[in-house]
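Quick one: structure tokens for this chain, please?
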Amino acid sequence: MCFFGKIAYCREIQNRRNLKEAKLTKIKPQDDPGLLKKCWRPLRENPKFAACMKPATIKEIAIRTIASEAESVSQLRNFIDGDFVKAIDAIHSCKGRLVVSGIGKSAIIAQKIVATLNSTGTPSAFMHAADAIHGDLGMVQQEDVVMIISKSGESPEIRVLLPLIKNFGNTLIAMTGNDQSLLTRQADIFLNTTVSEEACPNNLAPTSSTTAQLVMGDALAVVLMELKGFGSDDFAKFHPGGTLGKKLYLRVADLYSINEKPKVLPLQNLKEVIVEMTKKRLGVTAVVDHSDTLLGIITDGDLRRMLEKNRPIETVIAADIMTSDPKQIQPDALAVDALDLMRKHEITQLIVCDEGKYKGIIHLQDLIKEGLI
């Protein structure tokens, strides 16, 4: 133990008036966890504390925090009971929205739960408990279900809000860690998020409790998703922006049409092939017949392999060097599927075909520009 830690232990022992009975050398943190917590605060408030804390200690504290919160989350499985099923039924059958309210850190968790529910097909709205009694209560409609989140269930704002919600006659769900609270007693449904202790060394700052609330909210959202049959197509409707949205809705047809459309006939000579590839600047050209039926593809690699054979280039035609049965993709395929196909075969271009007819080229650079990589 560092010098400042020893001082903190000595001060606590002095306060207990048993310095004569307990020698400093005999005291170990594991023997008295309470003593360690009481000594922690003066120790960490010392300006020289950071200098004496070793990296290993920092890692131990972080790991202890994660383990504490993981344990709290693990205990939630004991609270998935009949009331949880009732909550799911109430929200799923609700003809209005789920209005979620809270105060302090619980209000922030409520906002995240609302965001998750909205994005996964359950209409929801956030109502701050403090603002509710100053006009925001007007957002609660007759067919809505209300869920209030609070660790203690006894916050002054919650106590004021409860009778107002009850007077409206809405189904009330309580998400709290206090099964004896006013919120629990007044609610129609109780979602228990009790934690044994916070990860905070003072057992004060909401840490494990807010994590438990967040996970319980995710459990609600995921169950409701499965009940609604909410799939990737539905998800894409609500996430049109960003890379996630593009992966779910952007299609090959949205990209290939902006590119040039290089093509040659099978009897065209090598010079014409090179000119077409150079002019269209995609590194490939399709080989088609007069009705645009795809016959093959010629790439830069095909040209290099032909030159290595030392053939007289004056006699070479497109049909001699093309690759038959090239990798193809349909216009209505997702762009992310085109990317997967390119990765699988280690290529940078794909022929776009519809019922055997050549439509164009999609290039790896098109996908990079869209942020899919």
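Residues 9 and 27 are 8 Å apart (CA to CA).
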